[in-house]
Specification:
Elements: H1 5-31, E1 52-53, E2 66-70, E3 74-78, E4 85-89, E5 95-97, H2 112-117, E6 121-126, E7 132-136, H3 137-142, E8 147-152, E9 155-163, E10 175-176, H4 178-185, H5 192-199, E11 201-203, E12 210-212, H6 214-218, H7 220-232, H8 237-247, E13 256-266, E14 269-275, E15 280-281, E16 286-292, E17 299-300, E18 305-309, E19 315-318, E20 329-332, E21 356-361, E22 365-372, E23 377-382, E24 390-398, E25 402-408, E26 414-420, E27 428-436, H9 440-454, E28 470-475, E29 477-484, E30 487-494, H10 498-510, E31 516-521, H11 545-557, E32 561-566, E33 570-572, H12 580-583, E34 595-597, E35 616-619, H13 622-636, E36 643-646, H14 665-680, E37 686-689, E38 701-703, E39 717-718, H15 721-726, E40 731-732, H16 745-755, E41 760-763, H17 784-802, E42 810-816, E43 820-825, E44 830-834, E45 840-842, E46 845-847, E47 851-855, E48 863-864
Parallel strand pairs: 28-31, 28-41, 31-32, 32-36, 36-37, 37-38, 38-40
Antiparallel strand pairs: 1-8, 2-3, 3-4, 4-5, 6-7, 6-16, 8-9, 9-13, 10-12, 11-12, 13-14, 13-15, 14-27, 16-24, 17-24, 18-19, 18-21, 19-39, 20-23, 21-22, 22-27, 23-24, 25-26, 29-30, 33-35, 34-35, 42-43, 43-44, 44-47, 45-46, 47-48
Length: 865
Amino acid sequence: MKIPRKFIFALIGAILLVILAYQGYLTVYYRLHNGHKAVLSGAAGSEFEEGRPFSPLGGSDIPGMVAAAENDYLKLYVDTETANIALYDKRNGSIIHAVPPGATDDPNATGINKSFLQSQISLDYFTADRLRGRMNSFDHSVSLGQIRLESLENGFRCVYSIGDTSIPTGLVPVYITPERLEYFLSRVEGTRAYRSNIARYVESSVPGHVELVESARTGRATLREMERVFIECGYTQEDLIMDMEGSGVELDIPLHFVIPMDFKLDGDSLVVSVNTARIREYADGRIETIQFMRAMGAGGIEEEGYLVIPNGSGSLIRFNNGKTYADEYRQYIYGQDPLLSDYATLGNTEIARMAFFGIESEDRTILGRVESGDSLAYLTAGISEKYNSYNYVYPGFELRGSMSLAMFGMTGNEASLPVVERDLPATILSVRYTILPDGGYSAMAQRAREQLIAEGSLRPTPIPADDIPFYIDLIGSVQGQKFFAGISYMGQIPMTRYADAAEISADLTSLGVRRQVVNYQGWFNRGYYHDTSDKIRPIRRLGRKKQLEELARTLEAQGGKLYSDTGLLSVPWSSRRYRYDLESSRYYGGGMVAGFGMVNPITLYNTFSMGYREVMYNAMSPRFLTRYTEKYIKAISRYDLTGTSLRDLGDMLASDRKRTGMIHREEAKEVVMHSFELLEQQGKPLMISGGNLYALRYSDDLINMPLAHNLLYVVDDEIPFYQMIIHGRLDYAGAPVNFSDAYDEREIVLRLIEYGAAPHFTFTYESANEMKYTGLNWMYSTNYHNWRTTASEIYHTVNQALSHVSGAEIIKHEILPDGLRRVTYSNGVQILINRSLQERSIDDFPIQPVGFRVIPPGSTTLTGG
């Protein structure tokens, strides 16, 4: 039977209509969605105080410098020829230099290293041909006389023109509007200079402009005299470029950068900042990274002291430690942007979670902090006699990302072409240097805590004194390989049912563990590696909803909590409701999606999946995060649990490098913080994993924070700097004890006590062997029954010490000889630690080998272990 032509046309039309409707849906719901824009404050990079002609204050305590600002604590001085600064501390008369006075004669610094010592700014950049280059403010600005000072409220601004700024006519415009010419020269009106310079401009063929006569353009003496007059009238290079661009006549401008850097006093601090929206790049040069004040407060070769760095929990680098064979310390704040990091992971390292650093010397204690632009920042530290004679720590900022694009030729030759981001992120790069009277890293931690409390990043009141919590990750279910009649398939493997969880909790209670804080993982949306949490579909084999909610009530009644674990930023490849091609962050090319994998602890490559797609994940673009957060809040509200545990929101921070509509990392941080605020508005507590600084203000419990530092050659001592800042304001724990690389129970207990951290374990009711053929095959030794006795003993030992300082702040941590440590709390309690294998004493209090002792206010021993 012949099919009617009308029917065929109607069928084709219907198919086309469906295709168009579907494409319209994808366009509206995904491609045109910009949920992040409503979240962004729009103020980034907009703050800018207009400068005034530089006017120094009277008097000087530092030869060769003039006072630019003064308050009750400090005086800010500047050398008007070099823009070098110094701080005079009015409290003790000490002087802190940004450029060491002996930098020009440093015998250990040659060439570029000597220039870096004398520079306030150094930068790496790409040329128009995408070749990398490096400049510094001393060689390429100060030495060329290309700086300009302006007065600001409580400080001054130095405008650096870095690079070759030579233009044939100097600072004399060839084309300018009559109004602007009159505006500038009116400042010398009535003089011979006014009349002669007005006469050198004639009517131009460029509409609305006058132009410099030919005889003036070629007369060097005339140009020098005109340039002197224009500079006196306040004419700048920016004015010259604006006038030339306004005329439409192309001006051959050489490669250079104009960067305004502000120096302001704020109480006992100096705040140094650069507004990236005011940076000017010429000749298609593009700044990749910028570094601030490499030698600020640096310690000399004859000084004693140390550098404080946020290496994991914190580290000290002793001045002049002789480790010239070691690389400099360099670490990104919050870890490197995943979209800019190498695909192969070179090692498992603790991330720098805090943007604090410090310098301690005989006459100065400096707490540094990257206040704004922290997600773009990294810290570098090094010791004397490697590149120069100073011990230093300084911040840098990665403003642009780049990647190499492989180019293949017809003849088989190949080359790589760097792809460089077009625009700078519009933000404020701000570093605060707080000058403390004394006190070392303990005083730095106290001041850091005060700053975080004042800005609302830490709760203003201490947590209540009580027993410490016992943190438990319970694995509910995981998708794995199962068999039926010899045929394999992927199905759910229950590891801890709700009834099992209740049994574990009751057993721990019988063992005296009261404050159980449970992080229930893998109870919905296909288990541990769950699908997107815009919907909540519980795994039925784990039990009934009522059982889960009853567990929450039981835990809460005895001071505990039940958190529902969820990941919002990292979406497993096995997800069924996620459009990875449309919703994921991207690299520079349109088809390159940001995909990652779990790190294989053996090979250290992050492509480890063993055939389980769920362990590989995509990074969700910030433009969709708010949408998923709102849907999760609506979905989880149907369950009466204590709160939400956020697996990745306080641990991972990724930009979106899509060429059209790029979202840089500072904007991504704003979006993440907005999601935290939405979750916080539900009135239920939040548990954060990792603990990046911006997440602390929303956290009620913190797990998986670094309790160790990275063993770098240049580092000398490990300190609990992070813990000293937050103890007493937040309960926290490190990684699960039963996943420790080298399990040593006594060492683990001592570390928990010294760092003020609660124990943390991962348990399953079933044997870990059940997860052998799942994406959780990297988890081992999780069976609760194998750990119940050891875990409860560890908890009671740690609680024996830390229950006496719960809610108290750490006011002092001391590294003493022979493996001894002393931690002093705000309530007067001291905890003495002996890491050695022999009995030791502190202040006549004996301490057992690999043991501790708690000393209450006074002199009587309270307890020990």
